[in-house]
Write a structure and sequence with these properties.
Blueprint (H helix, E strand, L loop, with lengths): L1 H31 L3 H50 L19 H26 L5 H9 L6 H8 L1 H16 L4 H25 L5 H38 L6 H12 L11 H9 L17 H32 L1 H6 L2 H37 L17 H7 L2 H17 L4 H24 L5 H7 L1 H11 L2 H14 L1 H22 L1
Subunit structure: Homodimer or homotetramer; both forms have similar enzymatic activities.
InterPro entries: Diacylglycerol_acylTrfase1 (IPR027251), MBOAT_fam (IPR004299), Oat_ACAT_DAG_ARE (IPR014371)
Pathway: Lipid metabolism; glycerolipid metabolism
């Protein structure tokens, strides 16, 4: 009983507490206007949102891998079928200028093969018609026919007189014994004598051959240009000295003395220390026309390079002589009759026939002289500046060709002729015309006098370059301009030289026939 009495109230208390809590919850619901169910739903919604966000984050982390894999599979399928469905794209033909294609090595090799085959046919035809005409002994016999009478060699030896006279004049000018005006007069007389003395000698002596006369005149022409440059540079050095003397309060400043001493220790010379036989004769034999007090020097002589250039010199000079004897001489002899009969169609055919071997000989001569010979001399003298030519074969204008095929002459004209005229107020067009006039004079000088006949073909050929240069630069561009330059080289000036050779043969043939 007691137990029941004790347990009853406890049970009721628990029920009352539960019911009290329920009533309290009911009161709270009425007070807040919310039910317990709504609160439970809110809590459940929060849990659902948290679960959603966590699951979405996991899906976001897993989705890139899935998408990449799917994209790869899709790309493989598309590429597999795209190659079957499409085989064209937007592009230009290789030979179109818009394609940007420039690897024509195979076509160049084809041109070389065709050139070799065509010239081999001409060479074989020449052998069948004329036989073997190459005779090196014939060339040597021209020099040994009269070994005690070499007027051309004597002319070259006499040229040393003008070299010594130039050095003596410069020494007198450096110490003030000669005035500038008197020195100018001496130089004018000396330079005019250099040009005229060999002319009178060649024209008066019948023993001078055309080859010997051309060689002697070439030596004197080079000496004329060298001594002109020697005179200009020394004059500029004196002007610099006088300008420094006017600006300084004393005769010599200490820094300038230190600089000259340092230069002398390094092997450099300064004016007037350059007025020596060694310095002048180094310049005379050096492969350049422009004088400097201190030329760039190579550190040593490369024997392998020197021997290769020597071998090329010997080989190509023999090749030149052989081509002239075997190819040029028979063609010139066979072209005499059309010129005598004034058959213009046959004349044009003969000139075109002679233009190809003449141009080939000119190319070989260019390589022999400007590359083999001048590099040989430069290596032997340790001359450092080896830019004797530039890429004239890529010339798109005639002016570019004349500026790049003979760099020593171009430098001389630019330094001692063209720029001084511009400083005196001459226009560029007049200066270029004067340069072409001077070049035309020397071309005529080197051709007409050895042949002892004056036809002015070389002079007119050079002057014709002026309107040709204007036409090419105005109307032709790129490859068309380059083709025009090559055509002018093949059928232009070489034809003028052939006209001289042909006239020489006609003249002597007529004299022989009359005799």
């Amino acid at each position: 009983m007691s137990d029941r009495v004790e347990k009853g109230p406890i049970t009721r208390k628990r029920r009352s507490s539960i019911s009290g809590a329920a009533s309290a919850n009911a009161t709270l619901k009425q007070a807040n206007g919310k039910s317990a169910v709504g609160k439970n739903n809110k809590v459940s919604n929060v849990n659902v949102k948290q679960n959603y966000h966590s699951s979405s984050k996991e899906n976001v982390q897993e989705s890139p891998n899935i998408n990449v894999t799917a994209a790869k599979d899709r790309g493989k399928n598309e590429n597999r079928y795209f190659g079957k469905l499409s085989c064209h794209k937007l592009q230009e033909s290789l030979l179109s200028s818009a394609s940007g294609y420039s690897n024509y090595r195979g076509i160049l090799n084809w041109c070389v093969v065709m050139l070799v085959l065509s010239n081999a046919r001409l060479f074989l035809e020449n052998l069948l018609n004329y036989g073997i005409l190459v005779d090196p002994i014939q060339v040597i016999s021209l020099f040994w026919e009269d070994p005690y009478s070499w007027p051309a060699a004597c002319l070259v030896i006499v040229s040393n007189v003008f070299i010594v006279a130039a050095l003596y004049t410069e020494r007198r000018l450096s110490v003030g014994t000669f005035s500038e005006q008197f020195g100018m007069t001496v130089y004018c007389v000396s330079l005019m004598t250099i040009l005229c003395f060999p002319v009178f000698t060649i024209l008066m002596l019948d023993s001078v051959t055309p080859v010997g006369g051309a060689f002697a005149l070439g030596v004197y022409s080079v000496l004329f240009l060298k001594l002109y440059s020697y005179r200009d540079v020394n004059k500029w050095c004196r002007e610099i000295q006088h300008a420094k003397a006017r600006t300084l309060s004393r005769s010599i400043s200490c820094p300038s003395v230190q600089r000259s001493t340092r230069g002398e220790r390094q092997g450099q010379v300064s004016y007037p220390g350059n007025l020596t036989y060694r310095n002048l004769y180094y310049f005379v034999f050096a492969p350049t026309l422009c004088y400097e007090l201190n030329f760039p020097r190579s550190p040593r002589i490369r024997m392998g390079f020197l021997l290769r250039r020597l071998f090329e010199m010997v080989f190509f000079i023999q090749l030149l002589v052989g081509l002239i004897q075997q190819w040029m001489v028979p063609s010139i002899q066979s072209s005499m009759k059309p010129f005598q009969d004034m058959d213009f169609s046959r004349m044009i055919e003969r000139l075109l026939k002679l233009a190809v071997p003449n141009h080939l000989i000119w190319l070989i001569f260019f390589y022999w002289f400007f590359h083999s010979s001048m590099n040989f001399v430069a290596e032997l003298m340790q001359f450092g500046d080896r830019e004797f030519y530039r890429d004239w074969w890529n010339s798109e204008t005639v002016t570019y060709f004349w500026q790049n095929w003979n760099i020593p002459v171009h430098k001389w004209c630019l330094r001692h002729f063209y720029k001084p005229m511009l400083k005196r107020g001459v226009s560029k067009r007049m200066g270029q015309t004067a340069v072409f006039l001077g070049s035309a004079f020397f071309h005529e000088y080197l051709v007409s006098i050895p042949l002892k006949m004056f036809r002015l073909w070389a002079f007119m050929g050079m002057m014709a370059q002026l309107p040709l240069a204007w036409f090419v630069s105005r109307f032709l561009r790129g490859n068309y301009g380059n083709a025009a330059v090559w055509i002018s080289l093949i059928i232009g000036q070489p034809i003028a030289v052939l006209m001289y050779v042909h006239d020489y043969y006609v003249l002597h043939f007529d004299e022989t026939g009359a005799a």
